[in-house]
Here is the input.
Amino acid sequence: MEKWKRDLQEIVLINSYTRNKRGVDAVGALFTEWLEAIGFETKRFERELIGDHLLFRSPQSGKRERVLLLGHLDTVFPPGVFEGFREDEEWVYGPGVCDMKGGNIVALEALRGVHEAFGAVEDIDFLLVSDEETGSDDSKRVTGELAKAYDKCFVFEAAGPDMEVVVGRKGIGTFEIAIEGRAAHAGTSYEKGCDANLEAALKLEKLVSLTDLEAGSTVNVGKIEGGIGANTVSPQAKLLLELRYADNKEKERLLGRLEEIAGTSFVKGSTARLGGSVQRDVMEPNAWQKELVAAMERIGGQKIGTQMRGGVSDANIVAAAGVVTLDGLGPYGDGDHTPKERALKRSFDERIALMKNVLSYHQKKGAICG
Here is the structure.
């Protein structure tokens, strides 16, 4: 069995559901062992309820651009739900084989290749966080602050079906509108009530109308709560909603209209409170990414396609910090977040070879572009 596959199997067989701190830390311990064996030092961000975030630091020469590799340790399935590792002629199967234990293995193997070729790895660090699958609520502050020290970032989420890299991801925000009305008996005192459910329905219609698919924007009210019973005018209601946007112009439009809708009483006497925030800001394609992709094509001797994705990753956080960022440097796979998750074997070899060549070029020349 190839080394990459053996190491992948070892970590896939450890359940690393985000809230399974013991399992997440066990996977992190293996990466600590593997990376310290090739000269990295470990900075641990200890956490009580989730796995520790780990920054693996190589020696800094001061002569090269600083490069950050980025991944996450956690997966989405609680213990006993979807476990195990298997393979056939073309695919490997199991939780995390593409999202994103497989991507972490690509990064590890590329770093091992650089170490073997040069005797050391310098000016390349590797950050593994523990809570990406639940929104990076804790780690995004760590990632955003650390990112400021780097010139380039490669994120090892899964590649596209034709091995594309990701140059853009939508921004995402999650919000709640809590509505207060006034209870009344629906039969004897209907006119004395203020229907919070009706206010919620009117707000929902306004919110959904903000969706603009051509602009890449969606507003989804995914959960509604309200009322007491059929014979009572509803005194309260809640709307839980998500918005996604493909550029900052749309972000400003959506946030402005969201505040306006939340602050407008469509049913006289009702009030509302808006809560929530943008979780990850938009990652917009830019000329610096284009230059980086072109350099990687020259170094790797291959054509590299690019794509936009509606889903988010920690690439959004690093890009928002002003770092030139590419995502999708992991293997190709599908079925992620389902019991059918799989990754294409040959895509591991392709991605490991590409990233070994790119990082080796960085070691020799001091920069990937130019």
